[in-house]
Amino acid sequence: xxxxxxxxxxxxxxxxxxxxIENLAVENWNNxxxxxxFRYVRSVGSWSAAMKSxxxxxxxxxxxxxxxxxxxxxxxxx
Length: 78
Known about the structure:
Blueprint (H helix, E strand, L loop, with lengths): L25 H10 L10 H4 L7 H12 L10
């Protein structure tokens, strides 16, 4: 996340449950993400993005986040 936080080419992946469109501005989320200690990860596969090779970054991100967690983890898989 830190690698691409300042790069507008990589938009933030936001849930669709926000009502206040004004708060979805990139600069607002940029400040919010910089102030919180969390990661938001996403992965794609052949069924969702027509990739030919298997993509496992989400798996590795889960393992890394669980390993470094100090308190508890909430992981939602849809």
